[in-house]
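Changelog-adjacent note: as of this version, every example in the card shows the full chain rather than a window. The one below runs 81 residues end to end.
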Amino acid sequence: MTNRMQFVNNFEVSDIKRLNYSRNGNPKFLFSFKNGMEMETPTDAGWVYAITPHAIIGTVIRLKYKTTNKRSGRYEILGIA
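Full-length structure tokens:
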């Protein structure tokens, strides 16, 4: 198993889109930020149920996230700090 770099930063949320549910029926979201970055929530993460998109859009939130694959340049949210 490889270790991915983890980060904690503040981001201003510009949009949140609900993605397709996982095979287990759990929600997944795509966060878009004012700086142009996009990040997804992990599959089957229980904390995702607490996300209220209309309350977060336009606010600055502190996220803990990691790289998913160095070649793809994608990031996955580990939690809202």
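Structural remarks: The chain has one domain: 6-80.
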